[in-house]
Amino acid sequence: MPLKRWIWPGETKQADELAAAGIQPLTARVLASRGIGSPNEARRFLSTEGELHDPFLMKGMEQAVALIEGALQEGKLIVIYGDYDCDGITSTVLLYRYLEEQGANVGYYIPDREDEGYGLNMEACETLHQNGAELVITVDNGISAAAEIDRLHELGIKVVVTDHHQPPEILPAADALIDPHCEDSGYPFRELCGVGVAFKLVCALEGDIEGVDTLARYADLAAIGTIADVVPLCGENRIIARAGLQKMEESENPGICALLAAAGLAEKALGAESVSFGLAPRLNAASRMGNCDDSVALMLCDDPQQAAVLAERVDAANRERKQLEGAIMADIARQVEEDPSLLRYRVLVLAGEGWHHGIVGIAASRMVERYGKPCLLIGTQGEEARGSARSVPGFSVIDAITRCKDCLIKFGGHPLAAGFSLKTSDVGRLRAALERAAAGMAPDMPIPQLPLDAALHPRELDIATIEQLSALEPFGAGNELPLFLLPGARIEEINAIGEGKHLKLRLRFGERSHYAVYFGMTVGRFPYRVGEAVDVAANLSVSEYLGQKRLSIKIRDLRPQGFDQEEYFADYCCCERLSRGEALTPEQARRITPVREELALVYRAVQKRSGLPADGDQFYLSCCRGRLGCGKTRVALDVLLEAGLIASRDGQLQILPAEGKKDLMSTKILSRLHSVLSGNAVGIQ
């Protein structure tokens, strides 16, 4: 697992200016690190009051209101056509609730994730016609459905499109079209999600230009979709999210109350994380497991007992989703153990028979986090295959996939995520095509980054100081939970928690000791020992338990004190090129080629300590830093593996019985490197 590139916080005059203007010093440093440098701008951001824009500033709003009001007056059947994700569900529920309260003849339609996929489709158009729909309002979709909207018109059905996705060059011929991303939209804030646009439509229908009353009624639904869809929590999104989280804490909505209870969040202070990791996964899980209706019904439910039943069903779906995700990740681990070369590609492509199509996207995100590379996971079913792609910032996976369209049946997405289908027999061809495409796009793949907001002095690590950061809430996309550097903390204890899946460390920082949790890190993979000094990147917050406040430290990353990351990443890129058989310069080869003594050093390290991690970076941090560079360490491990002197079993290294003397210099890896060093080869092919 490669390390992330830490982006160090800079000391800025703007932070001093903000502090001089009365903003708490640590809050000022966070704001300044995020480009909010003037006192007026900072006060606007921190203000608990906020103005919502006039919904009629959005092009298409007047036409949409006229069409909907006409259908209301004439008693026409209005059908809201939504989407199966959390944003689409809350969009559907919000607009349905409002129209139902107005006495509308209204229904909704959510396409099936597996059988229909995202957005309008021709079969759904026929079904809407057969069921008597006279006006269709899309929410969280429709901007790319030109052919389907033409068909609805042929069937005599009027269409209002409300969407927030990037529009195509040719817009659909809807009777009214609302999308803040359209170039001529005219709306001051373009980052609304689907439920945000639906909310603005309701404001317009109500004539609530300032949005105050409408927000008071629907803030909870709007906030769930806004936070779940990972749109930037600034501008109107920040106002919606803040109001919605407050409303949820005292919600009288039986469906939301039941969902909070199922997530273990009832009667607790709520933040954006509560939605992102508690509510949204449960609402999404029902559709992933093939029953989106449960999530919609839960959000619309007015009966507490029935809501509890529905909440248990979506919670059960989420538990099943976790089990399927775990099975996919275990299958991937087995494949990688059997064929480590799968991880050498620029873009990871893995496939498995029967992998659930609704789950592979989540698993792909886990792979990106684990390996720091774009990843495509493909579920095969006989001759057919469908997959999801996730990427890292700086590498557009949709551009890469587009270059491989000859391998695919269907595809779509955006720079960081995509979906696609293909023939099972073409999986290998797609992997090779993607490697060629990625090589043309990025000679060296982007390194995942970890931006730090501020370096803390030990005296700042206390409850009173960290509580000041609450002024920055709610946290989420575009306003992430601040990430702080704790330089030179010393490890005093290392303990496994959560059935061995996580760590709890005691760290000495200055004159005091603090406990910190490192989720997803195990004792076996942790490369540090008690007594070592480390630099810690951590999220800080204050929690309350039994009336007592506690400082919460969640480690995001950790490395040796004073670690030279530029030296590390130079070695890393050379090793990646070597593993893929690509050209190296003599200087690049020199920096990663180990001599005999260095090979022996690595061999003795494996011999001395059983159970060392097979991952080259973790092994380097555990055994060789300070004595050998990361590049030489990784190459030495590969040489020893190739020579059969060591082996990897279940992610751990072990010594193998030696059969005669091994000539390590004749291994393929060292032969290639030495050919470059001697000038007999232009590069490694």
Question: Please, could you describe this protein's structure?
Answer:
This protein is α/β, with parallel strands linked by helices and 685 residues long. The chain has five domains: 55-248, inorganic pyrophosphatase (n-terminal core) (Alpha-Beta Complex); 250-316, no CATH class; 339-447, Diaminopimelate Epimerase, Chain A, domain 1; 451-560, OB fold (Dihydrolipoamide Acetyltransferase, E2P) (Beta Barrel); 565-677, no CATH class. Helices cover 43% and strands 19% of the residues. The chain is built from 24 helices and 20 strands. The strands form five sheets. Strands 13, 14, 15, 16, 17 and 18 form a six-stranded mixed β-sheet that branches. Strands 3-2-4-5-6 form a five-stranded parallel β-sheet, with helices on both faces. A five-stranded mixed β-sheet has the order 7-8-9-11-10, with helices on both faces. The longest helix is centred in the middle third of the chain and has 35 residues, at 304-338. The radius of gyration is 28 Å and the shape is globular. The model has no long low-confidence stretch (mean pLDDT 92).
